[in-house]
């Protein structure tokens, strides 16, 4: 085995875990041909598998161990990694298209094609998840086949080596339930093996049975095993569909069990011997010797073969667009029973010569480096499993995530993020969380203050510090301590930018600074007010004369003037306005109250008239005129040649205009200039009442 030792790094171990038996093949690829170094097979001692599904993991694992040990003895080396295939039980397929564009034209490498296919598999999985109605069942991708490649929008047989800006692929991906995949992995692990690649049995079989040069033809491959019949369709140079029916060789054996009154293994031997012997001898469960002719066996099996081939024919037509294929290749032991190919041809409506069992005929590129090698239809799938390793890397790994075992589809670049997504770990617990934001409005515009950031999640892989992008491998232990939420947003009114600059006004010739104030939800608040959720804040850019006196803690006197114009206690004073009053003569308290905008009713005195219309001497009657309240109404005036409409009051004074125009009253604007305020062509008084259509001019004039 010196030659084997030289090729140890290249050896591929393929294992066909079938319903009736387990077949192991070990070999290597060299010069485009696969060299088989060892073969071993063993039948299950009990019915540990049914219809391609493992029912007894321990029993199947023991059989795998025995096959593995026999191969290791033949090779003189230990086997640790294995390639396996799953039967198409409850098979689902998704066909998708994915494209990748480069920044510039570049030569396409093998890695680019692999990445493109990986993108296709991931997209197919997303599409499958969105359409999957079996919400209680988790599915995994167990194989994929590129159907067509595209380069810069044109179909291309092989992308590698070409220069292109964009590449794309039509890809068919296959999915199986978790219980099928998980059972296979556990049985293999039971035998001390690690899965290097997982594919689907029809994908594996077609690698050998239908070479690429035949795939231009519309053909079908039927892999008839013991529990399932797996089907593949080819056309126009690619594989177009996969399918499966849960009926195969075991259904024929079950008929012989009942008729011959024997246990399953004896019935299986009777079925096989009828291909080579005319009379078969056996012993029934009572210990009595019995005989049966091959003709009797075939007569017993004929109805079931009719049913099997009808189901296969119907599935082929369904996968092929409701029409038969041109030819069918049959592999697997279940299809070797006499009459199977003829009946399938009849069901499809094609000549019987175009449905044939394929074995050694399709193994022209297989080199058997062992004596007495088996080259029949039973070996097509095991060798195809080995070849699939070179065609696609499709595997699952298992990691421990916060104490739970999780299975991940291995695309070669798995990270902590992938494990977290598979376990549906909440995204907001992976990244630092901000405290609750503070939402409010300032002068009618929405404002938000973010909360503080919390602490990031603490991630460890195999007890080493890691992050979300740390790559993970089979058996890794991932522990994530959830992130924390930061402190909620807090803000005082005085922290608003609009509250930053004080109002500078001149009172009796002296400049003073007035702190900004605001109305919060209609109530006056100072700079120390803590803003609450959904507060409505209106920044005030003025003080009234009365408020200035209160702020200065001085009495308000007579002779009030604002910008040298007579004013009232409630007259508004804006940035850089001048205010004055007589400090020696304070106003009476009652005169400082807010005037009622609604006029008071007036009394009139009239002389009483007699019925004759004459006045009665000395008699006066006091008549009250009815009160007519003034309601708020809009008023439109022209300010600097632009109409503006004021709203919300019963009457308006000149100073109200400043609430509706964008006029800079700041210190930078007023430097070296004085303000001009005209109403209908004359200087205006700030408390002068406005009427509809008034023409107003407001501007700065340079001082000379």
UniProtKB/TrEMBL annotation:
GO terms for biological process: cell division. Residues 12-209 form the SHS2 domain. CDD domains: ASKHA_NBD_PilM-like. Keywords: Cell cycle, Cell division. InterPro entries: ATPase_NBD, FtsA/MreB, SHS2_FtsA. It comes from the Bacteria. This is Cell division protein FtsA. It comes from Waltera intestinalis.
């Amino acid at each position: 085995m010196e030659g084997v030792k030289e090729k140890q790094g290249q050896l591929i171990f393929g294992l066909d875990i079938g319903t009736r038996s387990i077949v192991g093949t070990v070999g290597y690829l060299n010069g485009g041909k696969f060299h088989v170094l060892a073969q071993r097979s063993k039948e299950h001692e009990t019915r540990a598998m049914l219809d391609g599904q493992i029912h007894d993991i321990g029993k199947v694992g023991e059989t795998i161990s025995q096959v593995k040990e026999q191969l290791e003895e033949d090779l003189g080396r230990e086997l640790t990694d294995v390639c396996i295939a799953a039967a198409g039980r409850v098979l689902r397929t998704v066909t998708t298209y994915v494209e990748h564009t480069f920044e510039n034209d570049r030569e396409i490498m093998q890695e680019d094609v692999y990445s493109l296919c990986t993108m296709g598999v991931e997209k197919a999985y997303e599409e499958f998840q969105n359409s999957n109605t079996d919400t209680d069942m988790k599915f995994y991708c167990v194989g994929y086949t590129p159907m067509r490649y595209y380069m810069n929008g044109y179909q291309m047989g092989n992308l590698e080596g070409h220069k292109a800006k964009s590449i794309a692929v039509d890809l068919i991906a296959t999915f199986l339930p978790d219980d099928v995949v998980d059972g296979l992995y556990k049985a293999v692990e039971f035998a001390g093996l690690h899965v290097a690649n997982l594919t689907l049995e029809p994908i594996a079989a077609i690698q050998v049975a239908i070479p690429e040069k035949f795939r231009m033809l519309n053909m079908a491959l039927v892999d008839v095993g013991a529990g399932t019949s797996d089907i593949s369709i080819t056309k126009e140079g690619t594989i177009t569909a996969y399918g499966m029916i849960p009926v195969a060789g075991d259904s024929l054996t079950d008929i012989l069990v009942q008729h011959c009154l024997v246990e399953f293994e004896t019935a299986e031997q009777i079925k096989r011997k009828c291909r080579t012997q005319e009379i078969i001898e056996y012993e029934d469960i009572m210990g009595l010797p019995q005989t049966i002719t091959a003709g009797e066996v075939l007569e017993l099996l004929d109805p079931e073969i009719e049913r099997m081939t009808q189901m296969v024919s119907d599935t082929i037509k369904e996968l092929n667009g409701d029409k038969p294929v041109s030819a069918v290749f049959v592999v697997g032991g279940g299809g070797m029973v006499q009459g199977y190919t003829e009946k399938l041809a009849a069901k499809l409506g094609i000549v019987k010569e175009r449905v044939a069992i394929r074995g050694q005929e399709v193994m022209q590129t297989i080199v058997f480096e062992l004596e007495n090698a088996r080259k029949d239809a039973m070996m097509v799938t095991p060798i195809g499993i080995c070849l699939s390793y070179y065609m696609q890397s499709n595997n699952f790994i298992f990691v421990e995530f916060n104490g739970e075992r999780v299975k991940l589809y291995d695309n070669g670049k798995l990270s902590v993020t992938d494990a977290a997504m598979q376990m549906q770990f909440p995204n907001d617990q992976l990244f630092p969380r901000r405290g609750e934001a503070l939402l409010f409005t300032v002068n009618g515009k929405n404002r938000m203050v973010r909360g503080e950031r919390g602490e990031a999640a603490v991630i460890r892989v195999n007890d080493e510090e890691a992050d979300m992008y740390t790559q993970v491998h089979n058996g890794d232990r991932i522990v994530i301590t959830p992130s924390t939420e930061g402190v909620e947003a807090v803000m005082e009114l005085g922290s608003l930018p609009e509250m930053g600059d004080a109002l500078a006004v001149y009172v009796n010739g002296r400049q003073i600074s007035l702190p900004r104030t605001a109305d919060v939800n209609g109530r006056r608040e100072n700079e120390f007010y803590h803003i609450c959720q959904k507060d409505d804040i209106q920044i005030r850019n003025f003080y009234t004369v009365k408020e200035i006196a209160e702020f200065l803690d001085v009495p308000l006197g007579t002779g009030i003037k604002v910008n040298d114009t007579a004013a009232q206690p409630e007259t508004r004073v804006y940035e850089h306005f001048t205010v004055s009053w007589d400090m020696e003569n304070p106003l009476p308290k009652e005169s400082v109250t807010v005037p009622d905008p609604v006029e008071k009713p007036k009394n009139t005195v009239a002389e009483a008239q007699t019925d004759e219309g004459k006045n009665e001497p000395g008699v006066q009657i006091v008549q009250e005129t009815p009160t007519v309240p003034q309601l708020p109404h809009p008023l439109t005036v022209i300010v600097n040649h632009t109409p503006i409409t004021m709203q919300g009051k019963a009457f308006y004074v000149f100073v109200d205009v400043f609430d509706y125009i964008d006029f800079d009253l700041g210190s930078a604007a007023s430097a070296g200039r004085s303000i001009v305020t005209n109403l209908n062509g004359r200087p205006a008084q700030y408390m002068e009442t406005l009427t509809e259509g008034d023409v107003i001019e407001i501007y700065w004039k340079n001082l000379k």
